[in-house]
Fold this sequence. Notes:
Layout: H1 22-32, H2 42-57
Helix pairs in contact: 1-2
Amino acid sequence: MSADPARSTDLASPPAPPTGHARVDAVLDRAAELDVLPVAEHPARYEELHAVLVAELSAEPGTVPAGPAPGGGPGAGPSGQGPSGPP
Length: 87
């Protein structure tokens, strides 16, 4: 039997860069598992991940980190809040 090309690691999505928020990063890690799940299982996984993110956004203030993640992520300017330089 030949390998299923849809499950090839060559086609896997690159990992998402860390956000600096552990609970959000955990959701992104779970989203990366979609590459190895059968397509029929994708909707349930998306619903699960969406529910976790909604709960995170609805959490009591002070229970989650506020503001941009340390380093600001890709494309962040010196303030960590967006590209540097004029628009």
